[in-house]
Amino acid sequence: MDPIVTTVRTDLALEAREMLTKRVREDIPGVLIETSEDEDAVITRVTITTPEAERMMGKMQGKYITIESPGLRYKNTPLQQKIMNFLAKELVSMTKLPRNATVLIVGLGNWNVTPDALGPRAAHKIVVTRHLQDMLSPELKDGVRSVCAISPGVLGITGMETGEIIQGIVSKIKPGLVIAIDALAAASSQRVITTVQLASTGIHPGSGVGNKRFGLTQASLGVPVVAIGVPTVVHATTIAMDTINTLQEHAAFGRYFKSMANLSDQDRHTIVRQVLPEMLGDLMVTPKEVDRLIEDIAAVVAGGINQAMHPNIDYENIHMYLH
Amino acid sequence: MDPIVTTVRTDLALEAREMLTKRVREDIPGVLIETSEDEDAVITRVTITTPEAERMMGKMQGKYITIESPGLRYKNTPLQQKIMNFLAKELVSMTKLPRNATVLIVGLGNWNVTPDALGPRAAHKIVVTRHLQDMLSPELKDGVRSVCAISPGVLGITGMETGEIIQGIVSKIKPGLVIAIDALAAASSQRVITTVQLASTGIHPGSGVGNKRFGLTQASLGVPVVAIGVPTVVHATTIAMDTINTLQEHAAFGRYFKSMANLSDQDRHTIVRQVLPEMLGDLMVTPKEVDRLIEDIAAVVAGGINQAMHPNIDYENIHMYLH
Amino acid sequence: MDPIVTTVRTDLALEAREMLTKRVREDIPGVLIETSEDEDAVITRVTITTPEAERMMGKMQGKYITIESPGLRYKNTPLQQKIMNFLAKELVSMTKLPRNATVLIVGLGNWNVTPDALGPRAAHKIVVTRHLQDMLSPELKDGVRSVCAISPGVLGITGMETGEIIQGIVSKIKPGLVIAIDALAAASSQRVITTVQLASTGIHPGSGVGNKRFGLTQASLGVPVVAIGVPTVVHATTIAMDTINTLQEHAAFGRYFKSMANLSDQDRHTIVRQVLPEMLGDLMVTPKEVDRLIEDIAAVVAGGINQAMHPNIDYENIHMYLH
Amino acid sequence: MDPIVTTVRTDLALEAREMLTKRVREDIPGVLIETSEDEDAVITRVTITTPEAERMMGKMQGKYITIESPGLRYKNTPLQQKIMNFLAKELVSMTKLPRNATVLIVGLGNWNVTPDALGPRAAHKIVVTRHLQDMLSPELKDGVRSVCAISPGVLGITGMETGEIIQGIVSKIKPGLVIAIDALAAASSQRVITTVQLASTGIHPGSGVGNKRFGLTQASLGVPVVAIGVPTVVHATTIAMDTINTLQEHAAFGRYFKSMANLSDQDRHTIVRQVLPEMLGDLMVTPKEVDRLIEDIAAVVAGGINQAMHPNIDYENIHMYLH
């Protein structure tokens, strides 16, 4: 069976599994699921444990945690604070770091393309402390990890692969962990801005809004890499595909269709190419309020990282550490 | 017959006519068409002359001129210059103004939502001269019209209808013409950024990316109003509709459908609402490079207006007049 | 005696009085002073009650309240909150408004010149409600005044005097009060960003960073106008003047000067013109961090106005009303 | 004798020499000067050839070229083009590079502080080509050098010294030359925005608007480093110093001063500290129109570099290569 990614593109392991389950209609061997939820959020932990599951899911082996909270679309300070706490807790659980290891935060994406700007905007809100380590009092130092951050820009702006730039910096700074923040593409418009994904696998080629050509992984950098991503777009092709699926799946429209006749995958692609001819891949579907939404969710992502990195900083005063 | 706008939304009279022709499959009485083209651009002039045509087209009686040039998507200075010239010429032909009348340029839309920011960005590039009239030498004054400009912001930002603000300013400034610049929604993704529309009818409620609640028309302002618009988004619903239509129209997919069975308009809407449930209207489909594209097309629109207003300013030095 | 403003320029009544007192070395008739302070802030209320005092101070008759708090330079949420409360209280005390009167907030200044952008940035953070009045429940409506806001831009951008634009809008909207927010010039660098001034006199020509040519006053608009300003620049000439004064005033440098010899006002100007020849008035002295500082102080000003306008909105949730 | 930099700070070798000459009133051994000029610009080439000259000038041994053109303050396309050409020519003459060597452009400074944003803004306008080398046709390749660019951000934003980041990237990318673009401080307000300096010495600690703590030099990076800088600020202290000097130097004011009595350097500093007490170093003096001016001069700097790097690209179409 083909990996599901050939039909609808998603960067969320959660959605890859949903789509696969829909087709396979049974549990997928090698994929473990664990869920917890409260009234505001659902946390799902997907672990891909076998090469076979990796191939079927189209996602690398490793642990993927998603925090879903539809309320993130609305300016709601207490909810944002709560999701920051969840993110901080999951991030700490995913990374086992020596107390004095430095962490390098990498904001991926293009700051000139609003829905791709999540990484740079979140990186900008990180409390960087690596340069202050010698100035901190011993009490404070205990809860303030050495953190540094960079947003290298994309290939078209720098002429360099992000992977090359980060390799160079990692070889010089020697962090114990890299956290890469990136804007993602979802298969469902409801997940846009409302979902945060942590992945123990780092960033792999082809993912993200800007379709990375390179990877940022433990293999390429020599240190563990955690990827934190938020879907900010749905590909236009997804909407076309969703329309076809809706058409077929709903009995109400049965009178229009010959019984049993399912469109082949090839026919689906033919239709989509007809609807979105030249633009394929160039159009993005994004919320109207994307500028404000990106700013808000970048604050949530940065806030969660800040809490995980610097547990002893009083959050009321965390802004004192900000540039 | 229902106006076509109930199915797919477009602010372009050109597209409204295309869609209507497709359904009616004959000439529409009361709609005059005139076309001219060269290797870079097609200019179409649609005139709606009867109330019946107005109802069928879903567009007010008046003259609509579109300049289409696919090359506008690419940074191409000579082509941009050429389209500016076309726009200036059509704008002059549409407006018969006494030499010393003041023109007020209104940049509509929300500067915080990139695809809706065309109006404010173009208005900002207008060569305003009303405050300099007493300082200009007689030779220069001859080719430099009195022009002023404002971008009032949208209802959610000001708490005032744009119509109220502009009525107040018009009553004070007493211009001879208002030119309103606005971002539009197209039915076809190929027209996004590549088409400029001039309308002698002004702005009518429900149009534009931000779905205006008010109108800016000769009736409401007491002076002629020309609207200049560029499609910057396609509504997500359009993609869903396009998919359904493609599916039905292509004989190749006939094997899936029962013969003769066309989806009713109501069924189409049911499907679209299923595909884009809560988001309906909140999602926009826009090119990835929208930030750069808006900046470029705003320069073309402002350049065309500047040329029409100030025929004697040497274009090389037009920047000398800019703030 | 010449008004002090011919030597060092300030928009603060407080500083005008300080400078005048220094020269006159006695109480100024027609100028009433009242001060209150706590550990974080000093509030000074200057009332100019006679035409003679108006002439000597170079400030129109009326009430000027300044809230000074050096801590405003540092990101300090509790202090910012406290100053917002002070501002709200002073603003309420200065304006006696019928409960259902609409208030129009005007953000003056040029958004393209960071230190002049205070007005537009603060206006953008105002909770506008005029368009929501019909939708509010009766309980809520009681504490939510009808507020609208606009940032018209400066003469070089619009070709229209701000006074003309606001007159037009006021004649249409008929507010009961106009609040104009503006960036000011101070005589002392210590007051930059740390001082908020309320003036019952509105805006007078020649004031502000951009040196207004027009006024926004009860006389010109037909409704009361309160001006709220924050110094964001010191004119470069001020630094030159301060240097000369310091040189003369300090006995320690007496050995360099002939006894008794004070520089004449004319000589001072000759020196300043020598030091700052062509640039006079074009250079501004501003803190390095002006971008961040303007953003922070704009939030304080807008927050104070929001509290004064909408006493029943819970501040925790005030962001819910923001666009 | 103390280096002049203890009194008035300048990053321009040209000004350091002017000030030194004024004090020493004779030629400085080890400093070579060469000048050429036309009606629009003066080009001065200062070479510091001895350790003694380095100490007296407060500038490292090497070659410093300044292009001065007061017209750069005004939007003037032909003049900007001319200065680009001059800059390109001087840059080529300063660097002898193998044809296939890669060049890394580094935009220094803080993009959040407008006068310090020259480096990032210019770097953004560089035609990067390193990632396109394999795609270029042989004819084109000949005049299109492999160029890449990065704006790393400042210490307070990244937690890393810019020197560390660039060392890491250089070790990975292995360029044949680094060109570092930086905003400078001038001693004279007339040089702000009107002067471009090229220095064969790279960047040394303490220079620039943001007062670098690190160096970017051949010694630290292992490859030649050319620094290109434009003064965008004058330090507030400079204006105070200028005032004192003007006061003393002009015979017209002699009647106020005791004959022969010159202020000691220490007294000067006491005065300046009195005038600019807490702010010392935090205030900057900058033109009101700095946002527009930085944008324009960044285009000139980037244009000059682009021409030097890619002599075969037709300037009309250079934008085609831009992201």
- As a percent range, the share of helical residues of chain A equals 25-40%
Number of helices of chain A: 11
Q: What is the highest CATH level, the class of chain A? A: Alpha Beta
Find the structural class of chain A using helix and strand composition. Answer: alpha/beta
Beta-strand portion of chain A reads: 15-25%
Quaternary state of this entry equals: homotetramer
The greatest inter-chain interface is formed by: A-B, 46 and 46 residues
GO biological process, one term (chains A, B, C, D): proteolysis
EC number (chains A, B, C, D): 3.4.24.78
Pfam families (chains A, B, C, D): Peptidase_A25
Protein name (chains A, B, C, D): Germination protease
What does this structure look like?
Chains A, B, C, D: InterPro entries: Pept_HybD-like_dom_sf, Peptidase_A25. Chains A, B, C, D: GO terms for molecular function: peptidase activity. Chains A, B, C, D: Its EC number is 3.4.24.78. Chains A, B, C, D: Keywords: Hydrolase, Protease, Zymogen. Four copies of one chain form a homotetramer. Chain A has 323 residues and is of the alpha/beta class. Chain A has a single domain, classed as Rossmann fold (3-Layer(aba) Sandwich). The first copy, chain A, is built from eleven helices and nine strands. The first copy, chain A, has helices at residues 13-24, 51-57, 77-94, 118-124, 138-142, 155-158, 162-173, 218-221, 236-249, 265-275, 290-309; strands spanning 31-37, 42-48, 62-68, 103-107, 147-150, 177-186, 195-199, 225-235, 283-287. Residues 1-6 of chain A have low confidence and may be disordered. The interface between B and D is small, with 10 and 10 residues.
